[in-house]
Design brief:
With 220 residues, this protein is an alpha+beta fold. The protein has 2 domains: 103 residues; 112 residues. The protein contains 6 helices and 4 strands, in the order H-H-H-H-E-E-H-H-E-E. It has a 4-stranded antiparallel sheet. A hairpin with a 2-residue loop joins strand 3 and strand 4. The longest helix has 30 residues.
Length: 220
């Protein structure tokens, strides 16, 4: 029986393969969409969605990231299948993904973070020749804050996600501290609320190109 880590690794491989085979389907190289892989992924999402308590923090963080990636792909696939069935013009998968990201950026303007949370990025590790290069949307962990002083559990979850993501990508975490991070979130939230006249601020931990990014997005 496969371990949780082995299942998560297979989950990630299936998402990549699903994207490849859907690209082939939309490009005319396949007659049917890859429903078998999609069914396998749905079963994985359901299985560990029901067994979330069995996952360690790092495993849960990885599972949530993969689930969000799959959901984003699935939405793009659904729209492209609808266009294909209606006989309307098709756009490349990458263009569709960029369009969705652009719509999201318009809805949630990004506020730059101060440099105190940035650590030097390590040299990128070489990609194994056996893997096919696939463009993927950023993986993300999200938390919405309105009052960090009262939402200490959410801020702690965000901090743990940030540290875990940096550890997974090999980035330095020695200069980070829970107290300093919480103070940063408190000040950043208050600053955005005053300048942007918003109530909530969404903090996002993303792994992009092997490097961790922390963003603050204005929410209504």
């Amino acid at each position: 029986m496969a371990t949780i880590d082995e299942d998560l690794a297979q989950f990630e491989r299936d998402i990549r393969q699903l994207k490849i085979e859907y690209d082939q389907f939309f490009g005319g190289g396949r007659k049917r969409p890859p429903t078998e892989i999609e069914w396998r992924i749905e079963q994985m999402v359901k299985r560990y969605g029901e067994r979330g308590g069995e996952l360690k923090f790092g495993q849960r963080f990885r599972f949530n990231n993969l689930t969000q990636t799959y959901a984003k792909y699935k939405d793009i696939f659904r729209k492209k299948v609808q266009l294909k069935e209606e006989g309307r013009s098709q756009r490349h998968f990458g263009a569709a993904a960029k369009a969705i990201e652009a719509e999201r950026a318009k809805a949630h303007p990004e506020a730059p973070l101060v440099s105190t949370l940035r650590t030097p990025a390590p040299a990128a590790a070489p990609v194994a020749a056996t893997h096919t290069a696939v463009a993927e949307p950023p993986l993300a962990f999200r938390v919405v804050c309105a009052d960090p002083d009262r939402e200490t559990e959410n801020v702690e979850r965000l901090y743990q996600a940030f540290v875990q993501a940096k550890a997974q990508t090999g980035e330095d975490t020695h200069k980070l501290s829970s107290a300093g991070f919480k103070e940063f979130v408190r000040k950043k939230t208050k600053d955005l609320q005053e300048k942007q006249k918003c109530q909530n601020v969404e903090y996002v931990v993303e792994v992009i190109g092997g490097h961790v990014k922390l963003k603050a997005l204005v929410k209504s």
